[in-house]
Write a structure and sequence with these properties.
Largest sheet: 6 strands, parallel
Helix content: 40-55%
Strand content: 5-15%
Number of strands: 6
Order of helices and strands: EHEHEHEHEHEHHH
């Protein structure tokens, strides 16, 4: 039996970094439940292919090119979505990059590449959508955090630093925007088998033995495991 409390039907949902991995799975979760979904990525061909893959029968899925590291590009995207649909009900900040290396090996270019997308981009995307949500008096923002925000792994220092900042950003925005009817939450996946994480797990018996010993389900997470949490947080059930 359908329950309107958990419905996201007809919501306008904007998801950054949704051309693959967790973002792609989340987009499919919303689209399959009747939302109007806009996905973004840095490469036009990849985003368009992902939108075609997601699109459900009778649903609306649009792919738009956007480099979230460029605040002006993010603002332009948000303006376009609002001009087309009249609103944004839910924003999911999922765009993320990482490079595994010893911390002393980082240079300025690599540091900027990771932080500009993972935290700077998410912050300004949140502000761009948040201004519209405040005017509307409602909205939901969901930040895809990480286990690294509170338990950093080896050789991902800058990624972990950015995710820790995202965790604090989520709390700060939630405090300031809650009185305006805008909810801000984070979803912090554990070990998830995405293209980004695959090199860490493939052909690594030690890591896989650790996973089996310490994960109750005895498996890695799948991108699809994030669907339910995000749909819930976007629905009235999370009000």
């Amino acid at each position: 039996m359908a329950d309107e409390l958990f419905s996201v039907e007809d919501q306008v949902v904007l998801i950054s970094g949704a051309s693959r991995g967790i973002g792609l799975a989340i987009a499919k979760g919303f689209a399959d439940r009747g939302a109007k979904v806009v996905i973004t990525g840095r490469v036009a061909e990849t985003v368009e292919a992902a939108a075609s893959e997601i699109c459900p029968d009778g649903g609306t899925v649009l792919g738009k090119t956007c480099d979230v590291a460029d605040a002006k590009s993010g603002q332009k995207l948000v303006d376009e979505v609002v001009n087309q649909f009249g609103r944004i009900d839910t924003l999911v900040n999922c765009a993320g990059v990482n490079k595994r290396m010893h911390v002393e090996k980082y240079d300025e270019e690599t540091y900027d590449f990771i932080t500009n997308i993972n935290i700077r981009g998410a912050f300004f995307m949140s502000l761009a959508a948040g201004r519209y949500m405040i005017k509307a008096g409602k909205g939901s923002q969901i930040n895809i955090d990480s286990i690294n925000s509170h338990t950093p792994l080896n050789r991902v220092a800058v990624y972990a630093m950015a995710k820790a900042a995202m965790r604090q950003m989520t709390k700060c925005l939630a405090m300031e925007w809650g009185p305006h009817g805008v909810r801000v939450n984070g979803v912090g996946p554990g070990f998830t088998l995405t293209e980004l994480a695959r090199p860490l797990w493939e052909d690594n018996p030690e890591m896989n033995a650790w996973r089996t010993e310490n994960t109750p389900a005895k498996r890695l997470g799948a991108p699809e495991d994030m669907m339910g949490a995000c749909v819930f947080l976007a629905s009235d059930a999370a009000s």
